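Let's practice the habit of predicting before peeking. Look at the sequence and jot down your guess about where helices and strands might fall. Then scroll down.
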Amino acid sequence: MQKSGRLADGTFELLKKCGLSISRAKDNLYGRARELPIDILLVRDDDIPSLVDDGVCDIGIVGENVFEEHRLERSETPETAVASMTARLGFARCRLMLAAPKSWASDDVASYAGKRIATSYPALTKAFLSRAGVAASTAEMTGSVEIAPKLKIADAVCDIVSTGATLEAHGLAPTATVFESEAILIKRPGALNAGEEAAFQSLMTRVNGVIASRNAKYVMLNAPRDAVDAIVELLPGAEAPTVLELAGRDDVVAIHAVCVEEVFWSTLEDLKRFGATAILVAPIEKMMA
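Done guessing? Here is the structure:
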């Protein structure tokens, strides 16, 4: 996993929610989970795909943009086995975008024809331009891509964009999304041995539980008996809610449901209109199918 940065922060948070506490060495290059037989190597994100490809690590958590750039580069040597994506993790989202000086920036990708584009992702950039039928060259840079037009290194850039403030500060305007990315979990080529597979499956059970619980809510309410069907229809993503009798009441029941979609205030207002009372919406920390 990444040693530091936004991806690392999200990965440590994911592992924490999976119930794993990580003891780290003083040099911060190595860690170990106390609860599962998992050793962690802390490296640059660019190194993660190769380490997993080559079997140095069994799995890795990396940005999809980094993995796809690596996969496209490795496709030039098809005899080399490449790691496979196992799960999308839903954090560290970003976009790789074409951006040009405001003087000629256009939403028409054809405007980049004949231009030189500075980027840290030449394979992704070339693949996008090829699909768009645009002939342009690239200048590979490992950092500070946004200064390339001012230094006359390139006419435009293709870079990771979050708020766009950095591009704005350098007189650039984003014009086209080349690739949308998030953190993913990748697995090395070939089969794991029995012990490795058991640890991997245990980890994935926890990871899937964390992902499933992110937007899930536990909803409890009281409702008129004759409005149960209508109220159940309003609960977002709920499957077979539990309906319970209330002591001393024949006309009202309690409904408990796990909603796997977001519960909006408007949903609560609709429930209220059907006679629901004592509505409680609680977050779910863990889920397991």
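How did you do? The helical segments are 6-17, 48-53, 64-74, 122-132, 165-169, 194-213, 228-234, 265-273.
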